[in-house]
Amino acid sequence: MTWFFEMLSYSFMQRALIAGLLISICAALVGVSLVLRKNSMIGDGLSHTAFGAFAIATVLNFAPLWFAVPVVVIASFFVLKMSGNKKSNGDAMVALLSASSLAVGCMAISLTKGVNIDLNSYLFGSVLSIGWSDVWLSLILVIAVVLLYIFAHNRIFAITFDEDFAKAIGIKTDLYDAIFAVICSLVVVFGIRLLGALLISSLIIFPTLIAMQFSKSFGRVVIASVLFSVVNFILGLVISYLIASPTGATVVVVNLAALIIARIVRAIRQ
Asked: Contacts from 8-17 at CB under 8 Å and sequence distance 24+?
């Protein structure tokens, strides 16, 4: 276990571990509702939007985080409105947003001369980019999300499985949709430094899919999703340190392996 303490002796690994755990909890909680409502592609669209915003902010010498947050929040409301509009194809709009944002970000970086930008850190994440400010912001976000689930668990359950019924019993579904859109945006923006624009959406999707292999109860899926998300992130971070592989990619591969194993175990049990 000396290697583990050696890993934690580096301050950037300490920040990456704490921030990663907090983001993993938030992503898992948000992911349960998004996956069960078949809106998981929203995370992918917002992650690409965040990449474009980060790239433009860096080129214009703005603070990337504070520039990206309002941009991604606005984009989340746009996607939410398009998804609820039966006359428009929500999946197509998310795909267009993803491709357009990624293209704008790449063009902004390629057309800029004299600015040193590590494109890979935006696309695939970097543990070196995590600061203590990211840790504190992630802590505030996870407290808000946990409190939301504690005090509005029944409302979230109703909205997740039957939005029309939720409206009929007086639940303000538009308000909760807006809250989830903002939370999802913040998770994506805070997590893009760690996992990158191309991989952060997997942190929202995988834990819920793994948890659903073992339980169909909403409450159990929520708890199991958080546990799998946290454990898989720790394993991914440790493995990436031991074999010197990209952290974001390693975390995703660990989640993929866990999903495959979970499906095999479920098949054997059945």
From this structure: 12/127, 12/128, 12/130, 13/127, 13/237, 13/241, 15/127, 15/130, 15/131, 15/132, 15/134, 15/135, 16/127, 16/130, 16/194, 16/237, 16/247, 17/234, 17/237
